[in-house]
């Protein structure tokens, strides 16, 4: 029986968990995300990860539910997914030629047990010309991604280097998540 549910509609999170050979099924949480502006980026992604996991756990209380959330933070500003092309352009201009932090929160909930954590990874962008930014937006890649880029896709050409967990930037800190899942009795299989 598959006891683990990934509370996510993100194809990246599904692929990452598959990469770890963990048995699971996916059920999207479909929640109205609620955020308190006073939260730090780390607290924010943990709160959103918990909200996603809780929404699915309420309907499936016999299961173990994993929720996750990713935001980009630059200075005091937190960037989620872009609303449109102009929003994506303004985010990519901010990220150009400088470093930002990617925060990914994880929540695992089961009956009587809950574990949460977040990972912070730093990403250094090359300076980008307006032409490069516009071409990248035309690729369509920015639209469903925090900070308007995907390091695992064409967005790789924007990145000079990273410090931290690559997989957390893509959307799930894989090895640490697998270690937490082990505490819930969920193990990867060869
Ligand atoms: C920075 C960055 C983000 N992202 C993605 C990861 C997340 O899917 C997305 C941030 O949005 P999230 O709200 O974290 O997740 P989601 O809406 O895609 O999926 P769900 O809530 O159902 O789990 O940005 C990348 O794919 N690559 C990157 O390099």
CATH architecture: Alpha-Beta Complex
Q: Which class in CATH terms?
A: Alpha Beta
Could you give the distance between the termini? Answer: 17 Å
Instruction: Figure out the total of helices.
Output: 6
Total number of domains: 1
Number of strands: 7
Helix content: 25-40%
C-alpha-based Rg, rounded: 17 Å
Instruction: Return residue spans where pLDDT drops below 50 for at least 5 consecutive residues.
Output: none
Largest sheet: 7 strands, mixed
Bound molecules: thymidine-5'-triphosphate
Report the CATH topology name.
Maf protein
Share of residues in strands = 25-35%
Q: Which structural class should the secondary elements be placed in?
A: alpha/beta
Structure, described:
This protein is α/β, with parallel strands linked by helices. It has a single domain, classed as Maf protein. The protein is built from six helices and seven strands; from the N terminus they run E-H-E-H-E-E-H-E-E-H-E-H-H. It has helices spanning 11-19, 41-59, 85-95, 130-138, 166-170, 174-183; strands at residues 4-6, 25-26, 64-74, 77-79, 99-110, 113-125, 159-163. Strands 1, 2, 3, 4, 5, 6 and 7 form a seven-stranded mixed sheet that branches. The structure holds thymidine-5'-triphosphate (TTP). Residues 8-10, 12-13, 28, 52, 68-70, 72, 81, 102, 144-147, 149-152, 155, 169-171 line the site of thymidine-5'-triphosphate. Its cofactor is a divalent metal cation.
């Amino acid at each position: 029986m598959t006891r683990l549910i990934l509370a996510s509609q993100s194809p990246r999170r599904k692929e990452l968990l598959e990469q770890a050979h963990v048995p699971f099924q996916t059920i999207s949480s479909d929640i109205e995300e609620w955020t308190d502006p006073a939260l730090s980026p780390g607290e924010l992604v943990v709160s959103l990860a918990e909200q996603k996991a809780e929404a699915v756990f309420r309907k499936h209380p016999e299961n173990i539910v994993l929720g996750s959330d990713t935001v980009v933070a630059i200075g005091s500003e937190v960037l989620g997914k872009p609303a449109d092309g102009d929003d994506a352009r303004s985010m990519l201009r901010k990220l150009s030629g400088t470093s930002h932090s990617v925060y990914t929160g994880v929540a695992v909930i089961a009956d009587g047990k809950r574990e949460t954590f977040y990972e912070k990874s730093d990403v250094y962008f090359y300076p980008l010309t307006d032409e490069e930014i516009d071409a990248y937006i035309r690729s369509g890649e920015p639209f469903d991604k925090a900070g308007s880029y995907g390091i695992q896709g064409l967005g790789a050409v924007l990145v000079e280097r990273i410090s931290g967990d690559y997989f957390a930037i893509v959307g799930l800190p894989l090895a640490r998540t697998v270690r937490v899942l082990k505490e819930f009795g969920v193990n990867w299989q060869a």
